[in-house]
Amino acid sequence: xxxxxxxxxxxxxxxxxxxxxxxxxxxxxxxxxxxxxxxxxxxxxxxxxxxxxxxxxxxxxxxxxxxxxxxxxxxxxxxxxxxxxxxxxxxxxxxxxxxxxxxxxxxxxxxxxxxxxxxxxxxxxxxxxxxxxxxxxxxxxxxxxxxxxxxxxxxxxxxxxxxxxxxxxxxxxxxxxxxxxxxxxxxxxxxxxxxxxxxxxxxxxxxxxxxxxxxxxxxxxxxxxxxxxxxxxxxxxxxxxxxxxxxxxxxxxxxxxxxxxxxxxxxxxxxxxxxxxxxxxxxxxxxxxxxxxxxxxxxxxxxxxxxxxxxxxxxxxxxxxxxxxxxxxxxxxxxxxxxxxxxxxxxxxxxxxxxxxxxxxxxxxxxxxxxxxxxxxxxxxxxxxxxxxxxxxxxxxxxxxxxxxxxxxxxxxxxxxxxxxxxxxxxxxxxxxx
Length: 434
Prior knowledge:
This protein is an alpha/beta fold. The chain folds into 2 domains: 3-54 and 373-428, Urease, subunit C, domain 1 (Roll), CATH 2.30.40.10; 57-363, Metal-dependent hydrolases (TIM Barrel), CATH 3.20.20.140. It is 30% helix and 22% strand. It has 14 helices and 21 strands. The chain has an 8-stranded parallel β-sheet. Strands 3-2-7-18-19-20-21 form a 7-stranded mixed β-sheet, with helices on one face. Strand 13 (193-194), helix 6 (197-202) and strand 14 form a beta-alpha-beta unit. Helix 7 packs parallel to helix 8 (238-249) and helix 8 packs parallel to helix 10. The chain is globular and about 65 Å long.
């Protein structure tokens, strides 16, 4: 049995029993023990994590792997390698592939590709409606049987409230959370960025914040009356945070995520018609950004997710209204999140909590915590190492990031999945031990 010792690091393990200066012993695919620093272990391969943080493997509940159908943008192989480089050991991949993941056949295809070519865990998300059309519900029993972990029409909102109610009831019957994309498309219209002074100055059609607020309100109301488990994706605005805060206070079974670009950037990033700053829902105002951070601080927003959305250059190098929405995020997820620590908004354990145990709890998977006998999914990072974002060096096929050239602080050094080192000091190891 292969043994690995991660020595010299500081373990931060929200929700777990063992923390502090300890060495982590991994045997096979599980955590074997938490040892006193420097304790000798015979026959173990040692990774020196001196000065580094050792945490449970990061869980990204919102990614787009693009396979099947759009392999020119990303594949399971390239997307999972980007995840490993970002310290992410499990990704939830959204259903807006081609064909849409609305059947057991497509789910099984994704899982088979993950088994053959993936280097981290892949958790498929099935569609709520056939073809993401918002017209006919999928079969939650079929999808759950094939291996989906949640249901979502992400990228589209289910506009029909009656259909969404029935979808939530079906999801609840099979213990599947529903991840919602909160935009009232009748209000979004032709909007391509946040509606306000910047959109007016640029002459671009605006997307009013009310579109997001109204759909969040509708979905938490439906979750209340159905008892379904609701997860609100990519919260961007002050009103959305307030609605979710109130729903939690009333006992609604709701969790929420935001993404680094929503607490780091504002609509100002669109100036110059930077298509890499075009996302859906859009970047909002400085006031919204600060309220999103406030929601992270007080626990209204439980999870930080990347919404990794790779596109080819030809999808972005067009006029702003015609550009595809989305930016890559797996390889900057941790570093951008650590800015909240460096800016003294959140503590390091609080950030790690929103990247590990909270997403696991929100979507009901059995990882996110380091414990004896538990799954050995581990991320090791240097919280102070500085580096400059160069998307050409990323493992993702997508290079569409507005953070190119930014100086980051905090870098992943080791990613372990099921006891195997898949990323070590800048290199993908294809599952080999260090």
